[in-house]
Write a structure and sequence with these properties.
Helix content is 15%, strand content 25%. The N and C termini lie far apart (50 Å). The strands form 2 sheets. The protein has a 5-stranded mixed beta sheet with strand order 3-9-8-5-6, with helices on one face. Strands 2-1-4-7 form a 4-stranded mixed beta sheet, with no helix packed on it. With 199 residues, the chain is of the alpha+beta class. 29% of the residues are buried. It has one domain: Cupredoxins -  blue copper proteins (Immunoglobulin-like), CATH 2.60.40.420. Strand 1 and strand 2 form a beta hairpin. Bound molecules: copper (II) ion (CU).
Length: 199
Amino acid sequence: MLVTAFVLGSAAVFFGACAQTVPATPPITPGVPASPRQVNIIMKDYLYVPGIVDLVPGETVRLNVINGGLEVHELVVGSQAVQTAWAAAEKPAANPPPGPTPAVSVPPGMEGLRIVLNSGESTSVLYTVPRDVGQQILLQCHIADHLERGMAGAVRFVGAGGVILTRPPAGSATTSAPESAVPSASPASAVPSPASAAP
Ligand SMILES: [Cu+2]
């Protein structure tokens, strides 16, 4: 039993090392407006699956978002500034009565992409991925204490074919991408409070 575990562990390390040169599977064909690439994001109590979303700079994707949790959840896609703006706007509405989050707004230019879904609801929106891979795009839920519970993720920019261009900020997600080509990226065990990054 112990020997088997050791052998399997060694094999995992071996294949893990090899995987560094292997692009994501299946290969990513960037989406275009006439044919957006389908990207699924599941909201749960209290995380996003996947927590790391692979997107190609400049591509057009159709985000299929479903709330598979029991609580109302939100998906804000945007920079830290966008996240901070929504967090501030929603703070007075924390711990609302059952139902959708009360209507709140943020200053112009700070909207990002925001989706609010009740348990079991789903929606589908077109999203054009920014071309600037230098900026960090985060996924966060600012309803009540969901962010503190770990409801955070991030975009990882990849090139056509799945070559990884950027690494999401450490601690930006509690779940990793569903592929093994990521050498020791975003370990779930090293997640500080995402809110601590706010100024
Ligand atoms: Cu939530």
